[in-house]
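haha ok so turns out i had the wrong file open the whole time. this is the CORRECT one, sorry everyone. sequence first:
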Amino acid sequence: MVPETYEVFALKYATVSRRSSENFIGGDPHDHATSMDYFVWLIRSPDRTILVDTGFNEDAARRRKRELLRCPIESLTLLGVNREEVQDVVLTHLHYDHAGNCDLLPKAQFYLQDSELQYATGASMRHSLLRAAYQVEDVLGIVRAVYEERVTCVNGEHELTPGVTLHRVGGHTAGLQIVRVRTRKGWMVLASDATHFYANYQNQTPFPIVHHVGEMLDAYETLNALVDNAELIVPGHDPLVMENFDAPSPDLKGIVAQLA
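then structure:
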């Protein structure tokens, strides 16, 4: 029996201009103007559809001065997916740009590392520096979902379904997880913020928002170990994703990239 493979898509929903020196601990000796893009990811087969992360909304974009291009949840319709039908959502972590809009997914079961939930609701959040990338309303929404029995807390490695596994790597946050997917190209990893940009893991230069530098460096090794080749590591915020992968149709160029 041939193992099931999945299609994988990156949907760009926001962007922000910045300097390249902001992307690396220690800065960038070749500092230049660049941008950081924001994505959610869709994994699907004929039998299952899985959303990875949920992005942020207009209020968060306004507060944090990001350019919101489209609602990441409503943009699922570009791929023929109705938000009311989404049942499985992987939250790689609970930062504002990955865990907003959960209220728009009323039937979803959320998959989250237990260590991330404990971190985002624990004593560390009394420090403004550590809570800066969290949005309290988003965290409260997940707590409510826990009480509604709509959160599956994962500890370490977890098989969501044959061909899709979750792996805690930490580093960027206490419970950051990445998603490994079996595709027609081979094993692919949606790295999320384990590596914001290709250059972070390629040059071993971590992104400055980091909970544990050692775990972030270790995560780069994990990324390479989980894929069949390095081209199948998909960073969480790199505009090059839209250049390195084709759109599923000409009208979606620059909006959706078909990763596999």
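The mean pLDDT is 97.
again sry for the mixup
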